[in-house]
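[User]
If only I could read backbone structure tokens as easily as an amino acid sequence. I have put the entry right below:
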Amino acid sequence: MKLARFSTLVVLLTLALIVAPSFAKPGATPGGDKTVYTGVVGDTMCGTKHMQDTKEADCIHMCIEHGFDYALVVGDKIYTLKGDKNQIDKLSGRKVKVTGSLAGNAIAVESIEPLESK
């Protein structure tokens, strides 16, 4: 009797391990694989829709001062950028290439570089 219960438990655990990865969120990589993203550096408050009559970079800086995070805007998606804020700050409002790992909705930035000259 105990052997039958143990066998059933082993089968159920095996099935759970096989099926569970299919429920993972798209874009979530278990090993934190590096990916390259291109988009515009913005902030989590405004995205790319900044205040009128204000320079884009100035609006981003104001939002950051008020506690919002830097973001990478890729089409209609907004990813929070986690990394060297001084490096990201220099590229506010510019189109960039970001290499990093996606965890949820945040990119752990390994490198960031402009795609256009200033």
About this structure: The mean pLDDT is 76. The beta strands are 34-43, 70-74, 77-82, 95-103, 106-114. Residues 21 and 30 are 10 Å apart (CA to CA). The chain has one domain: 29-114.
